[in-house]
């Protein structure tokens, strides 16, 4: 099983969103996001959605600080 984050930006309505690297567990994916969310937001990513393989786990979750 692979856990990945799907990225969303304001411009995603017209294109394909990007995805993160694959993680071996939900915990690993969530820990990584906790460390990286500020950098992702600075790159223009506005929200993320967590998938286990093709199954939606939760999201979209906003990356805004406020």
Which short descriptors sum up this protein?
66 residues; 35% strand
Structural description of this entry:
It is a single chain. By secondary structure, the chain is of the alpha+beta class. The chain is 26% helix and 35% strand. Strand 2 (45-52) and strand 3 form a beta hairpin. The longest helix has 17 residues, at 26-42. The radius of gyration is 11 Å and the shape is globular. It starts with a strand and ends with a strand. The mean pLDDT is 89.
Overall geometry: globular
How would you spell out the order of helices and strands?
EHEE
Instruction: Name the strands of the widest sheet in spatial order.
Output: 1-2-3
Q: Nearest-angstrom radius of gyration?
A: 11 Å
Instruction: Count the DSSP helices.
Output: 1
List how many beta strands DSSP finds: 3
Poorly predicted runs are: none
Mean pLDDT: 89
Largest sheet: 3 strands, antiparallel
Strand content: 25-35%
Helix content bin: 25-40%
Structural class call reads alpha+beta
Oligomer: single chain
N- and C-termini, Cα separation: 33 Å
């Amino acid at each position: 099983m692979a856990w990945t984050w799907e990225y969303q930006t304001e411009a995603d309505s017209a294109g394909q969103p990007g995805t993160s690297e694959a993680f071996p567990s939900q915990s690993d994916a969530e820990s990584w996001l906790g460390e990286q969310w500020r950098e992702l937001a600075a790159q223009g990513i506005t929200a993320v959605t967590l998938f286990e393989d093709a199954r939606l786990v939760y999201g979209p979750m906003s990356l805004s600080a406020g």
